[in-house]
């Protein structure tokens, strides 16, 4: 173990924690400034809340019992997941303030998916905690299920927002600062994984005790991919919102 790499991992870890944690605040400001949440996907927010609850439980469980998951769970992972869950909950409360029917108008598939996911999670985790879970060779358990659930939700949650931007032909109401900070946090979180791997020399993805935290890697990678999509929408596809675009076309025609 290298002291330099250990210190570098800690520094990068807290950098990703602050970048990803700060990324939640600009959306509050955007909603407040506009006075509505017409550009913010309700499905994205609802899935985000469930995802971060799963990730917090996964990270805390993996940190307390490191032998049950592959990869290192850093203290920054727990701090980020807990902070993210609280901020997402507060954001949904703000959204409900602007639109009282926030939960009522959620698409049915979102409600069904979240309800089924947590029902299965309760069953699996209860069996695991009772010590009666068949560990399938050590490659699956209740804690890992929560990690897989978070990865699944992350893969799903960005689509409603990207589709909403596409249908509106605008990213107004969707904070680009949030996207930029999310991209930074995702990149740094993946960098920390590789630093930990280089430090330990163990790149075992599926066996216990390795440094490659597969759930954390998937979260970071997925965030980066969709953040690139959002940046392309904001800076290229929908640079001018529909109303501004029409005004620009009228000004050009008058000239």
UniProtKB/TrEMBL annotation:
<dbReference type="InterPro" id="IPR005282">
    <property type="entry name" value="LC_transporter"/>
</dbReference>
<dbReference type="GO" id="GO:0015184">
    <property type="term" value="F:L-cystine transmembrane transporter activity"/>
</dbReference>
<feature type="transmembrane region" description="Helical">
    <location>
        <begin position="176"/>
        <end position="194"/>
    </location>
</feature>
<dbReference type="GO" id="GO:0005774">
    <property type="term" value="C:vacuolar membrane"/>
</dbReference>
<keyword id="KW-1133">Transmembrane helix</keyword>
<keyword id="KW-0813">Transport</keyword>
<feature type="transmembrane region" description="Helical">
    <location>
        <begin position="109"/>
        <end position="130"/>
    </location>
</feature>
<feature type="transmembrane region" description="Helical">
    <location>
        <begin position="214"/>
        <end position="238"/>
    </location>
</feature>
<feature type="transmembrane region" description="Helical">
    <location>
        <begin position="46"/>
        <end position="63"/>
    </location>
</feature>
<keyword id="KW-0677">Repeat</keyword>
<feature type="transmembrane region" description="Helical">
    <location>
        <begin position="78"/>
        <end position="97"/>
    </location>
</feature>
<dbReference type="InterPro" id="IPR006603">
    <property type="entry name" value="PQ-loop_rpt"/>
</dbReference>
<dbReference type="Pfam" id="PF04193">
    <property type="entry name" value="PQ-loop"/>
</dbReference>
<dbReference type="GO" id="GO:0012505">
    <property type="term" value="C:endomembrane system"/>
</dbReference>
<keyword id="KW-0472">Membrane</keyword>
<protein>
    <recommendedName>
        <fullName>Cystinosin</fullName>
    </recommendedName>
</protein>
<feature type="transmembrane region" description="Helical">
    <location>
        <begin position="136"/>
        <end position="155"/>
    </location>
</feature>
<feature type="transmembrane region" description="Helical">
    <location>
        <begin position="6"/>
        <end position="25"/>
    </location>
</feature>
<keyword id="KW-0812">Transmembrane</keyword>
